[in-house]
Structures are given as C-alpha cells and as structure tokens.
C-alpha cells in the first residue's frame, strides 16, 4: 500500500513471506480468486495512542503507544508488548504480521497481534515505570480482553511491567487473570512461561539435530542478547551438553571460553538490572568487547542463536558466521537476520530456522497460560515444559514436511510460511473473509 512506504521492517517481513506462499496458491487457485493475500496483508485494526506520564521530578513526559490487531481468523489477537525507543509503526506491524503465522504454527487457537511503545524502561525508576504502565493501560484496556486480545511481554516488558499493567487493568475493569500472559506465578502466571521462548528455540534445534542422529552434546554455541530469550536458550543448550561461548547486550558482548556462567547472567540482568560488562569482574578468563557485535567476532562454533533484536545479522556478518563454522542458525529473536544474510546462509547450506517457527515456544506457553486461567487451575512445570517440547517437535516436523512436500528440503522459511498461512487462509475463506 502507498501509505506503507518507508516502513522498512514491515516491508522486509512481507517481502520474505510473499514469494514463499506462491507454491501453495498455485495449487489452490480459489485463494487467489478470493484475493486472500490482498485481504490478509491489511491489518484488521491499528490503534495508536498518547501515553502521558510524570517522571520523578514531576515533569510530564509523553510517549506513543500502539496495538496492531492484525488477524483474528483463528483466535483472539495474541502477541507481546515491546517497550524500546526504536518502536514505531513499522516495527509493530512487522512483529504483528510474523505473529499471525507463528501463532498458527503452534496449533493453538490464537490470532496475531503486537503492541508497545517507544518508552525506554532502562534508567527509569520503578515508580516511573509504574506510572508509565498505568497510563499505557488506561487506554489499552478499552481494546483488550481474555477473548478479544491478550497481550504479553517482549523486549523491555518483563514480570515487573506485566505486574503494573495487570494491576491497572484490574483497577479499571476488575480481576480477570486471562487478559495478560507472562504474569508472575503468584497470580495465575504459568510455570515455564519465563523459560518458554529460550527453551523452545533449543528444543526446535534438538529435534532438527535428532533427524540426523546428532545432538547438542559437545557443540559450541554462540548466543546474542542477555534478556529473557537469551538466558533460557543458554540454560537449556548448556543442560543438553553444549558450551555457550558468548552473550551480549546493546553495549557490547562477552566471550567466555569456559562457557557462559548463566546463573551470573541471571543475577546481573534479571535481578540487578546491570550491564553485561560486569560479567568480567568475577570471571577473569572471559573478555568483554565494548561497543562490538558478537556477529563480528571470529571464533569457531557450530550453532548460532541470535536472541536480541531485528536485523542484528547482516550479509557480511552472515559470511563470517559461515566462515566460523556455523551449521545451524535458529532465531530466538524476531527477524534477526536481514534478507541478504538469509540468502548467504542458504547458499552456504546452513540450516536456517526462522523466528516464526523457532521462537514460537513463548507464545505457545502463553496460550497454555490462557487455558490454565480459563479452567482456574495451574499445571506443574514438568507438564508445561513437556507440552512445550511436544509443540516445538510438532512445529519442526510441520516445517520440515511442508518444505519436503514442495520439493524444498530444509527450506524451513517456506515450510513455516506455507503451513502457518494455510490454516489462517482456510479459516478466513470459511468465515467469508472476516
Ligand atoms: P529482553 O528485553 O528481555 O532482552 C533483549 C536483549 O536484547 C537484551 O540483552 C538487550 O540489550 C538486547 N537488545 C535489545 N535491543 C537491542 C538492540 N537494538 N541492539 C542490541 N541489542 C539489543 O527481550 P526478550 O529476550 O524478551 O526479546 C528478545 C527477542 O526475542 C526480541 O526480538 C523479541 O521480539 C523476541 N521474542 C521474545 C519472546 C518472549 O517470550 N520474550 C517470544 C518470541 C520472540 P539491552 O539490555 O542493552 O537493551
């Protein structure tokens, strides 16, 4: 659409998607006749709103809030809230668009949405974050609900923010556990939700490796980020016998040849909200590379798990990844590889697992949190974790088998897009495209 010009991330996500579903449409012309792509590409609803809040000095600040309710063909809108200065309409739309197919792949009844704000929680006091969240929810509550739209966390939105958002929703609309996921365990959060995206990403690769009788044992893994997704990807990879060499934040990265001490990263980032540079204060064998990207680092490894943010790996960095020996790239983050980077990986025969498949574990467990909230019961960690592993196995097999069906072995992008799309498209057609 003419109005979408300049929405770089959004157009990138659509450009990646469109060519891959042609194989399906060729076999199913009824979808072309119904202009399914034309309708699907247009979000059902986009909300943009003002978020005024007072800082600790009593000054009024203002940020911009968003919720993109992209597609509800197979369930209520579902997708996280991101608080980061880089948030704009393009970023929101790309994330919501990807979310449609990711949610479809989970096999659970959830539609696609995403939201957030250009608010920066870093460096703000708890009271400032609370006032911002309360103002944000004052508007958002008009548009969400357990059967309508169920937001969760994403970059900059963790347990603290979800708590403040939930508290404000409750004051305005009364208690309803099912309106947000990623809640703390004390008020109807799900066991294993914190771990789900990172663990799920590693489970996806586990099943991929399993196909060739291989495993994580003895593998060297490079991870970016040190947030929610990274921490639990590192934890699970380590548990399965791998050595995790790196992690990062937006200021620099850590290389620890002995393997990243995940408990320390948890303490630094989850508990103390500190920078990753602090890691080397207690680990003298490790090195901190200030201002550098882990993807510019020369070191031998087998598996790359980009878990920070979009477009963190460009073409040159993908070439280095191949030179470093990377055989598998599984995206914990959303769209961390540029289109050019993906093309380099494809040409080199690297097994590339796109985020909409590899990081679907988070939203899958969010949907399980909704189920638990509906039945007013909590399931054990083992039960939820077991279901997560099964869901990731199913997603991997769906991507693999769909790619094979269209003579595109190992093209998990095609597999994920076609399988995710088919279910949504069929639902839209049968509902008269509403
Ligand atoms: P967090 O806020 O917990 O952590 C984000 C990490 O990435 C931090 O280490 C952060 O560093 C780093 N980072 C963020 N933005 C940038 C940037 N522009 N440049 C360099 N580093 C950056 O977020 P999550 O772990 O929840 O999310 C990470 C990725 O995973 C995102 O792409 C998100 O959409 C995706 N994802 C998350 C899910 C979830 O369940 N949380 C589910 C599915 C996907 P710093 O601290 O310096 O900002």
From TrEMBL:
Residues at the site labelled Important for catalysis: 154
Q: Quick one: which residues bind substrate?
A: 78, 99, 102, 153, 366
Which Gene Ontology terms of cellular component type are present? cytosol
The residue ranges of the Glutamate/phenylalanine/leucine/valine/L-tryptophan dehydrogenase C-terminal domain are: 190-432
Which domain of life does the protein's organism represent? Bacteria
Binding-site residues, NAD(+) = 197, 228
What is any one GO biological process for this UniProt entry? glutamate biosynthetic process
A molecular function annotated in GO for this UniProt entry is: glutamate dehydrogenase (NADP+) activity
Active-site residues annotated for this sequence: 114
Q: Tell me which InterPro entries the record gives.
A: Aminoacid_DH-like_N_sf, Glu/Leu/Phe/Val/Trp_DH, Glu/Leu/Phe/Val/Trp_DH_C, Glu/Leu/Phe/Val/Trp_DH_dimer, Glu_DH, Glu_Leu_Phe_Val_DH, NAD(P)-bd_dom_sf, NAD_bind_Glu_DH
In this entry, which stretches build a coiled coil?
Answer: none
Q: Could you confirm whether the keyword Amino-acid biosynthesis appears in this record?
A: no
Q: Which UniProt keywords apply?
A: NAD, Nucleotide-binding, Oxidoreductase
Q: Name one Pfam family in it.
A: ELFV_dehydrog_N
Q: Which SUPFAM superfamilies match?
A: Aminoacid dehydrogenase-like, N-terminal domain, NAD(P)-binding Rossmann-fold domains
Subunit relationships: Homohexamer.
Q: Which NCBIfam families match?
A: PRK09414.1 (NF006929)
Q: Which family does the entry's similarity section mention?
A: Belongs to the Glu/Leu/Phe/Val dehydrogenases family.
The protein depicted here goes by the name Glutamate dehydrogenase
Organism encoding this protein = Enterococcus ureasiticus
